[in-house]
């Protein structure tokens, strides 16, 4: 429920009150004596879905944007007429739960901090995320998401497009571009400092750090996360619920991959940075695409109905453009996903081959103690570089033909030859 406080312009008192009476809206009127062109202030409660149509109709009868209109939350309204008004507007669809267009615009503005604060908080969140990735600590990485100020720009672009607020659109677009560059740049500088000061070993193989490696070779599931974050973000802002939590989810899609890209740059591995950078771009584009589609589906339209056609065409162009770019990136992520699938399949088949060879009668005394597939570092499309099989058996040396047999059988499952190393451990049973 909302309580609307509206200043009544001179000469519009009777018109506004008649409009409220015709709609069965209870109101309280107080005289205004400030001599600033207003004769009264009228207070009236409204159900959430009634705010937008009622304010639009009041503007049609003479309440312009210069008049003060304040919309605040109302905890409880006891009135039979209000219950009738609620039944009229609340019909159980998505438009019933959403806030008004006016509130949506105000909320999008309020979620975007000043530029200096945005820069500082983005840099801090990127540095914290970089530290968390080096520590391989999910808790620290999650902490970096909490302080990231990304939800405002990420959702403001969609809001500005749908309600025909091009100033909000341009500001949000600029903030997002600057935010991405700042996050990657801050992460790269901090990672370079960490490396040259030996806080972590300069020879550290970043592909061995789980929190980093999983973002250097992203797959299609990352696209699902970004689309979900965009839809949830718009629904949360449109209904006024759990905005902070969804902001963390949006930051999860952007800040850690940006930090991973910065680390790869600092380590001089541009191919590794490609996968993380693509993940950042596809995530930010997917958030915006999901936001646009969700807002339009929720029924938000520009205030001026004469600009509806132009706004609809603009939204369609932006949706089409974003969809095409996301589709291109999705193909790239799909290729990475397929590469990961082939690697997993090879690893499973190679392990089965090792077990099969050692189950043969001539090698009945031997067993697989450990099996490991070592990957190359050709990110983002990694592949098997060598297979290490640790075999246990009677004291002495392993039969020479064992290594040849394993090499032959394992390489049946790969297009490019893979080295096979056999490590033999003599076992003594007591």
From TrEMBL:
Sequence intervals crossing the membrane: 115-135, 141-163, 175-196, 216-235, 242-267, 273-298, 319-341
Q: Which UniProt keywords apply?
A: Membrane, Transmembrane, Transmembrane helix
Q: Does the keyword Endoplasmic reticulum apply?
A: no
The source's superkingdom equals Archaea
NCBIfam families given for it?
TIGR00341 family protein
Supply the name of the protein: TIGR00341 family protein
């Amino acid at each position: 429920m909302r309580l609307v406080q509206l200043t009544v312009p001179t000469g519009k008192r009777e018109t506004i009150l008649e409009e409220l009476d015709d709609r069965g809206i209870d109101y309280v009127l107080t005289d205004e004596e400030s001599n600033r062109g207003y004769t009264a202030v009228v207070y009236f409660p409204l159900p959430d879905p009634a705010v937008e149509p009622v304010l639009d109709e009041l503007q049609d009868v003479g309440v312009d944007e210069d008049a003060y209109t304040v919309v605040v939350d109302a905890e409880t309204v006891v009135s039979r007429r209000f219950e009738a008004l609620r039944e009229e507007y609340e019909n159980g669809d998505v438009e019933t739960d959403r806030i008004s267009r006016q509130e949506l615009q105000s909320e999008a503005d309020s979620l975007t901090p000043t530029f200096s604060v945005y820069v500082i908080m983005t840099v801090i969140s990127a540095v914290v995320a970089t530290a968390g990735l080096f520590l391989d600590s999910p808790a620290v990485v999650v902490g970096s998401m909490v302080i990231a100020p990304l939800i405002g720009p990420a959702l403001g672009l969609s809001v500005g497009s749908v309600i025909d607020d091009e100033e909000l659109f341009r500001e949000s677009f600029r903030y997002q571009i600057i935010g991405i560059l700042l996050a990657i740049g801050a992460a790269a500088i901090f990672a370079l400092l960490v490396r040259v000061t030996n806080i972590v070993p300069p020879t550290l193989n970043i592909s061995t750090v789980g929190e980093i490696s999983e973002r250097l070779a992203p797959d299609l599931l990352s696209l699902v996360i970004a689309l979900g974050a965009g839809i949830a973000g718009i629904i949360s802002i449109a209904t006024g619920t759990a905005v902070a939590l969804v902001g963390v989810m949006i930051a999860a899609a952007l800040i850690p991959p940006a930090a991973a890209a910065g680390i790869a740059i600092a380590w001089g591995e541009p191919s590794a940075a490609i996968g993380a950078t693509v993940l950042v771009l596809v995530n930010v584009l997917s958030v915006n695409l999901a936001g646009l589609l969700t807002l339009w589906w929720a029924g938000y339209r520009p205030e001026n109905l004469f600009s509806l056609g132009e706004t609809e065409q603009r939204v369609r162009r932006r949706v089409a453009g974003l969809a095409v770019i996301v589709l291109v990136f999705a193909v790239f992520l799909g290729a990475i996903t397929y590469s990961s699938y082939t690697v997993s399949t090879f690893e499973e088949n190679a392990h089965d081959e090792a077990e099969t060879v050692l189950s043969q009668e001539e090698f009945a005394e031997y067993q697989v103690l450990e099996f490991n597939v070592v990957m190359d570092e050709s990110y983002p499309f990694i592949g098997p570089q060598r297979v290490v099989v640790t075999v246990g058996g009677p004291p002495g040396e392993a039969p020479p033909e064992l290594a040849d047999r394993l090499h032959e059988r394992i390489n049946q499952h790969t297009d490019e030859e893979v080295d096979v190393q056999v490590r033999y451990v003599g076992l003594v049973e007591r």
